[in-house]
Amino acid sequence: MIRRLAIFLLILANSPLTGADEADRHKVDMPAPAASALREEMLMKLQALHQVEAALAAGKPADAAPFVERHLGMGAMGQHAALPPEARPGRYLPDAMFALGRQSHRNGSELAEALKADDRPRIDAALRDVTATCVACHSTYRLH
Ligand code: HEC
Fold first, then answer.
1. Whose CA is nearest to atom 36 of ligand 1?
2. Is residue 19 part of a domain?
3. How far apart are CA 109 and CA 26, in angstroms?
4. Interval 15-70: pLDDT, tens
5. 84 lies in some domain
6. Residue from 134, 135, 139, 142 whose mutation best tests the ligand 1 pocket (most atoms within 8 A of CB)
7. pTM to 2 decimals?
């Protein structure tokens, strides 16, 4: 029991989310329509990651490339441009958070290219870099 607890604490201490509780994360304020647009965008990101895994499992990585470019890549930037200002999350993000988002999209486009090229080591590295930005942003910022 104590051994199990020790192992659990060791894993926790080495996890990138250590200390990322409510108090440590920077709260970002934005109007409800912008928050809801951001959350919808996030759900598409999660779906895109799932499509990557599904395409890899099916042995057809290139199938996921267009969806990944659209929702994780640079193709996802500016997608709220046609909405009224209060529904555009981008304008409410602190600079560092915006930069992290931009990096995430750059990594997403690299992932899309790697999928298209069906290059497994490149896909793995790009997936690592994309998910690193998910983790970095989520452990630093929150809306609620
Ligand atoms: C630049 C910052 C940033 C990046 C990068 C980012 N997220 Fe988010 N994400 C957020 C914020 C902020 C929230 C809202 C958290 C809250 O409700 O307090 C969120 C929420 C979510 C949610 C919950 C949506 C809901 O319905 O409440 C999911 C799922 C999610 N993100 C997935 C991802 C995935 C997958 C990635 C990477 C591919 C990612 N996010 C990258 C900032 C980011």
1. 134
2. no
3. 27
4. 455 555 777 899 999 999 999 999 999 999 999 999 999 999 999 999 999 999 99
5. no
6. 134
7. 0.88
